[in-house]
Amino acid sequence: MAATRRGDIVNDQPRRHLEQALDACAEGRPEGIDVILQHEGPQLLGVAYRILGRHDLAEEALQDAMVQVWRKAPQQDRAGGSARGWIYAVLRNRCLTILRDDKRLASLSPEDLTRMQEARQDLQPDDDWKLLAGTGRLGECLDTLDDPSRRAILLAHVAGYSHGEISARQGVPLGTAKSWIRRGLASLRECLS
């Protein structure tokens, strides 16, 4: 039993570091961002790159996300999820905003657009979600979902695909993809509560 407790304490350290870092940001102390980048920087950049397919855009997304984390840290609701999950959600939303920015995409060369699309097609959201979920309850709950529902949820919430894109990628009718997502999210909510 002591080994389990010690393991839990070791596994709990990164979570506490991120919570303390968000507290520092909320109090206006810049070392909070330094701690986040020290513990999660390479993984955050990797997720941004997998979504955007370009290093320059990934770096921009990470920088913008850290500004948002700094500004919105006082609003982060611990009861609504983990500090780590919140930080990654801020980054993901910034990446999706960049993808949707028509002006930016219009200025890209055809080769850059092709590379971005290829990188997005190669995205394996299962790996990204395991990174975000860690070994906690969310990962356990995801494992309880049927494969189509889990995959559809991951494509929507990690890779940023629309329901129509998920339908096409999975080769199923739009209503089926929406049903998988709706049913899977309901199961996740039940499992997590």
Automatic annotation (TrEMBL):
Source domain of life is Bacteria
- Give an example GO molecular function: sigma factor activity
Q: Which residues form the RNA polymerase sigma factor 70 region 4 type domain?
A: 137-188
Q: Which SUPFAM superfamilies match?
A: Sigma2 domain of RNA polymerase sigma factors (SSF88946), Sigma3 and sigma4 domains of RNA polymerase sigma factors (SSF88659)
A Pfam family it matches: Sigma70_r2
Where in the numbering of this chain does the RNA polymerase sigma-70 region domain appear? 38-104
Which keywords describe this protein according to UniProt?
Plasmid, Sigma factor, Transcription, Transcription regulation
Report the Gene3D superfamilies cross-referenced here. Answer: 1.10.1740.10, Winged helix-like DNA-binding domain superfamily/Winged helix DNA-binding domain
Question: Which biological process, per GO, is one annotated for this protein?
Answer: DNA-templated transcription initiation
Give the matching InterPro entries.
RNA_pol_sigma-70-like, RNA_pol_sigma-70_dom, RNA_pol_sigma70_r2, RNA_pol_sigma70_r4_t2, RNA_pol_sigma_r2, RNA_pol_sigma_r3/r4-like, WH-like_DNA-bd_sf
Q: In which family does this protein belong, per the annotation?
A: Belongs to the sigma-70 factor family. ECF subfamily.
Protein name (record) = Sigma-70 family RNA polymerase sigma factor
